[in-house]
Amino acid sequence: MMPSADETGGTEAGPGEVDAAGPAFAVMNGRKLAFSEPRQEIYELNDTAAYIWYRLADGDAPAAIIDGLAGLGISPETADAYVRDALAVWARLAGAGRAGLGTAARGGAQPQVIHVAGLVVRIRYDRPSLARIVAPAFAHLAAKSPAAHEVARADVSLEILAEGTRFRLQADGVGLDAWGLDELLPALKAQLTAAVLAHGRYALAIHAAALAHRDRMLLLGGEAGAGKTTLALALAHAGFGYAGDDIALLTPTGRVAGVPFAAAVKSDAWGLVSWFRPELETVRTCLRSDGQHVRYLPPSAPPVIEPLPLGWVVLLRRQPRRAAASLAPLDKVDAMRMILAEATAPGERLRTAAFGQLVQAMAGAQCYVLHYARLEDAVRELQRGCA
Length: 387
Description:
Helix content is 33%, strand content 27%. It has 12 helices and 20 strands. The strands form 5 sheets. A 6-stranded mixed sheet has the order 12-10-11-18-20-19, sandwiched between helices. Strands 4-5-6-7-8 form a 5-stranded mixed sheet, with helices on both faces. The chain has a 3-stranded antiparallel sheet with strand order 1-2-3. A hairpin with a 5-residue loop joins strand 13 (247-250) and strand 14. The termini are far apart.
């Protein structure tokens, strides 16, 4: 629950001591326990956490508890961090808890409200320092001045709570796993993607990068490592509209909308992307669940949000020894099969109506295979092919 401080002495409480606004405490076989009635869970406390929580139960002010920890040999800065962590966990375990403690636990950080795939998502950070690290990856989707009803009644509500050196993600009040700081941003993006797939209005979710050009949508597909993200960023730098590097949504109207999260640039592409987006060098490195080190790069211009007719479907085939890039025609049925092979439908089942909408969208699209080795050649070939 808290960073280990077993050398710190603490006061043991007797079994059954309860604070009405917080968890119940007990000591069993020398082990200090807390029970959260709202969550129906038992937690074991180390000596430092027990000292803080018992004093909170007695109604002591956080400043007094920090002074007490300092008297036990803990530095004021560390004591302040421990008490803030305890307040955050206390407020969560207590349910509604004390209003004052709940406010302190959030550290005054304002919620971030973002708009993505037709959804309003509220993200709360329990401390401003955490918001400064994570929020910039979603700033391009954020409402400048969110309306009060958006803050109060978002379609999806996410919260990030610090628990010592770990950070727990909570979705609509349900606690999920906890991650280290370098894992947090990928976990949050994954949860947001899951929210889009669970709550968004779409007929089919397509695994492809999406770019807007001449009021139509270009989809880039291909196997992992084919270069979808890198090429999408290079095309956006060349004047295409960025609409996402991971998934695109076929809407019930037969148009295609991107999901423009910040692009996840893998470590083997940092040198290429930094050439035209030098700010990538200053972006924090994150660790994804698949073991890949990535940096999340928001678009340099406002992303394309509105659904557009499908104009092109391009299957990427990167061939390191190839001399020049080339676009070869791809049969539309083969292209549609490629899309369906990695697509997701609501309820994991492709409906007849959705199949008809895909056929309608594909009817107006040009389909190609792009063979390439060099990024700049691929950009020029697509500029020519999408003219």
